[in-house]
Amino acid sequence: MTPHKNPPPAGILETVKCNLCGGSDFKVKYDSPAPSGAPGEMADYLASTDRYGRYGRIVKCPSCALVFTNPRPPTENLVASYCAAVDPDYTREDASRGINAFLSLATIRKFVKGGKLLDIGCATGFFLNVARSDFDATGVEPSEWAALFAREKFGLDVSCGDFQKTDFAPESFDAVTMIDVIEHLCDPSAAIEKVAGVLKPSGYIYLVTPNIESFSARVLVGKWWGLRPAHLYYFSVPTLSALLAAHGFEIVMARSFGRIFSYGYWADRLKNYNPLFYKVVRKIIKAADISEKFVYINTRDSMEIVARKIPRTGDGK
Ligand SMILES: [Zn+2]
User: Fold this and answer.
1) Residue 20, CB half-sphere, CA atoms under 13 Å: how many?
2) Of 7, 64, 223, 301, which residue is the least packed, with the fewest Cβ within 10 Å?
3) What's the gap in Å between 66 CA and the centre of ligand 1?
4) What is the DSSP string of 2-43?
5) What is the pLDDT of residues 9-38, one digit of tens each?
6) Among residues 38, 111, 129, which one has the least CA distance to residue 76?
7) Alpha carbons 18 and 36: distance in angstroms, whole number
8) What's the gap in Å between 18 CA and the centre of ligand 1?
């Protein structure tokens, strides 16, 4: 274990083992002041929070190369904060999120055309709202506010709670999606095992998550946008593939994932890197009157992965 410069607040944050191989040794990859993680001070762990340069300590497992936040707030504090999360900023780009949902659906449809789909961590339901054109779509979401939003705005079938505690029928879904979710989970390995249980033989899982081995992540080092308090795990194609393989999946597609957002949204992401450049870009966007117009950009630092559940011997499929 490498000594670190920013000791976490004593007695609050917890040290965890590697979620992929179970190892307890690690090397510090990035170090920054840690958010407290105490109950009542969990705002940093909201999905839309981007406290650049204040994400705590991020380590790498020397055995399997999994990158994760360590130490981190106690699981009960994280779960309580997700359940209580009210995050109106998340809906600021709702039109863009709807379009991005179509991009994900188009990829999924290359492998599975219809049937039952479960979206884990469905947030306010933007993907489910699109997916229900092809699937009998169901969602589960820990935030009471987001689940209510999905039900009331879109009329979606969304239950509020922790996926690990749900009792969906075994082998009942044709597809399971986790879009920008796995990096937030306290126990990704347990989640993927449970997904394997609810998927039909030869069912598919679709994931989108930041890629810690991407060019941007390596060039921007500790200032990469993906490093944020709300992210507990930082996967690469090899580590996410290893996690999926450990639970009986085979990767059928892995590639970078671009997104559509307004020019104004993309420009705002420059603010933390280069304030002067941000001001120049903002002026150009204002002069051209394109702040609300959409543009597709693939920064190649998010990845989308599709994996197929390998039927067990005797399934006959
Ligand atoms: Zn490991």
Assistant:
1) 24
2) 7
3) 6
4) ---SSPPPTTTSB----TTT-----EEEEE-PPP---TT--G
5) 545 889 999 999 999 999 999 998 877 777
6) 38
7) 22
8) 5
- Determine the 3-state secondary structure of 102 from DSSP: helix
What spacing in Å lies between the alpha carbon of 296 and ligand 1's midpoint? Answer: 35
Nearest to 2 by CA among 32, 34, 25, 33: 25
> Could you tell me which residue, 228 or 275, shows the higher pLDDT?
228
Cα(141) to centroid of ligand 1, in Å? 28
Phi, psi of 159, rounded to the nearest 5 degrees? -100, 150
CB 92 within 8 A of CB 50: no
Instruction: For the chain, give every domain's residue range.
Output: 88-209+235-259+301-309, 261-295
108-131 burial, b at 16+ Cβ within 10 Å, e below that, comes to beebbeeebbbbbbbbbbbbbbbb
Amino acid at 67: V
- In whole angstroms, how large is the CA radius of gyration of the chain? 19
Give the amino acid at 229.
P
pTM, entire model = 0.86
So what's the architecture of 88-209+235-259+301-309 in CATH? 3-Layer(aba) Sandwich (3.40)
CA 169 centroid distance within chain: 25
